Amino acid sequence: MKRNKIIVTLSILITIGVVVTSCVSAKINDKTGSQLWTENCRRCHNSPPSSAFTNVQWEVINTHMRERGLLTDVEYKKILDFMQQGD
Which of these CATH numbers, 1.10.760, 1.10.150, 3.40.1350, 1.10.8, describes 32-87? Predict the structure, then answer.
């Protein structure tokens, strides 16, 4: 009986997590790299022109900041594209 309650509770929590994640993902998918830059990076950094670094340098910078800023795959890719070539 107690085991069933634990299983049901875990199932509910997992379902809630999936729903919340999909809602957040949908919002991120609708945003441009520029918007994501403003929301995630601009808090600490001024926006340099995309020509300030090479595409390889932008990739290294964004890979580092992806970890520090806890960016999703989609956010990382959109911000990287934005910084490499603009929106």
Answer: 1.10.760
* Tokens of residue 52, six digits: 């300030």
Q: Report how far apart, in Å, the C-alpha atoms of 78 and of each of 5, 7, 27, 35, 55 are.
A: 42, 38, 13, 9, 14
pLDDT tens across 32-69, in order?
998 998 888 888 888 788 888 999 999 999 999 999 88
Helix axes 55-69, 73-85, angle to 10 degrees: 150
Q: Which pLDDT score, from 0 to 100, does residue 18 have?
A: 58
pTM of structure = 0.63
